[in-house]
Amino acid sequence: MNAFIAALGNVAEPINIIGLVFGVGIGILIGALPGLSVNMGIALLFPLTFAFQGIGGILMLLGIYCGAIYGGSISAVLLNTPGTPASAATTIDGYPMAIKNNQPGRALGLSTLGSTFGGVFSAICLMLLSPLLAKVALQFSKPEYFALAIFGISIITSVSSGSVIKGIMGGIIGLVISTIGVDAMSGQMRLTFGTTYLMGGLSFVPVLIGLFAFSQVLQSIEDCYDEKFVKQEVKIARVFPTVPDLKRVAGTLLRSAFIGTFIGCVPGTGGDISSFISYNEAKRWSKHKEEFGHGAPEGIVAPETGNNAVSGGAMIPMLTLGIPGDGATAIMLGALLVQGLQPGPLLFTQQAPQVYTIFLGLLIANLVMGLFGFSLIRLFAKVINIPKRFLLPVILVLTFVGSYAYNNSIIDVYVMVGFGFLGYFLNKMEFSMSAIVIGIILGSLAETNFRGALMMSDGSLKIFLTHPICAFFLAVALISLCSPILGPLFKKIFPKKGSAQA
């Protein structure tokens, strides 16, 4: 109790509150700008932590962390351009609801609700379940990581709202891209074409910007070539979701929050994996599957709840084991060490006030994020009233700046442009960009851990069946891949009473 009271005093200090609120605000801005990732924002502002006494700098980084994850949904919903990789799944239903269905307030309200709920839920889990979830994470080895990656890849059948075959082809394209570079196991060059740039593989951020942002700019230029700008009267009657929407997404909120928290506490995963898995499960359990891809409320709430719930989950292995859950917590691990805090089991007994300060800081950061989000929805919605002749050049400049700033490499800009044109033509052929992104994100994770697992078992494939957690994920992945075939088959075998009578 004394430690908790001391933590309240730490958080309540004016300089710490200012730092936390500043972090949330700047984080939302960073997340909303395409190309500026969560990790980049935390890394850029890391030096500011030295201006704070004690744990205030950590609270500022927590604010940036939460704000940037949510901020990515703003551009995803309004511009079909995910501000961060974790918001890529939000574009599938967020943009159709906001622009095609002319409901930007509803879409932003749902994304804000999901983001806030996921963040608060994971922060509470961080307080109550840290030791327990850390023990679960310790059970993961090479086979479990491989199975988790395969499960993530299997959801391409769900994110492909059109042709499943094209979705699988898109996933294969992503898997091929993920193999570019030096083989981590053998040291062999793969698909480098004799260039040193490709030895480290393709940078993910320029590829993401090209597939989503630059390709969207090209499509928008084509659409508005002979189009005259007509100002849309965006009337947002309310910023909070309606009661029917709340009832409809209640189950999705809880399910996605559990998924995000669990995936977050597994080191090496992140919000991008969580968002796609949450989206897949929302579609699997929904009674309105036909609405997904056209503006389904669950399709917005699920990825935003899942990716924001990762924030608390990722802190669990970092604080209890000293193992960062993702890139952002790896940077914060360095900040903790700079402040003289050594993460690990002893941290909870030796420096309990600081630990509780972090818990409360993460909870308050998510509440401030929700307050900012709901209070500024009307301002965010004004974006669609900016004429495209003004908006498109700004987005175009941001795509070039974001691609170059990631590694300070002009080659990254060329990569972005190349994938932009590729995305433009693939969109014309109704391929799923999300399937390609899933393949790129999870391809290397699956390959590395598959080969590592075989080394553990001297080449025996039985290792994937003898590990219960691994076998479970592989079984679920198989069901997910077969669901497009099994679903119609079950409907024929077990028709609904209404349809049978008809």
Question: How would you describe the overall organization of this protein?
Answer:
The protein has 502 residues and is mainly alpha-helical. The protein has one domain. The chain is 72% helix and 1% strand. It has helices at residues 2-12, 14-32, 38-45, 56-79, 91-100, 104-137, 142-154, 156-159, 164-178, 204-223, 243-264, 271-285, 297-321, 327-338, 347-350, 352-375, 377-381, 388-407, 410-428, 433-456, 463-466, 468-493, 497-501, and strands at 181-182, 189-190. A two-stranded antiparallel sheet has the order 1-2. Strand 1 and strand 2 (189-190) form a beta hairpin. Helix 11 (243-264) runs parallel beside helix 13. It is globular, with a radius of gyration of 22 Å.
List keywords for this structure.
502 residues; 23 helices; 2 strands
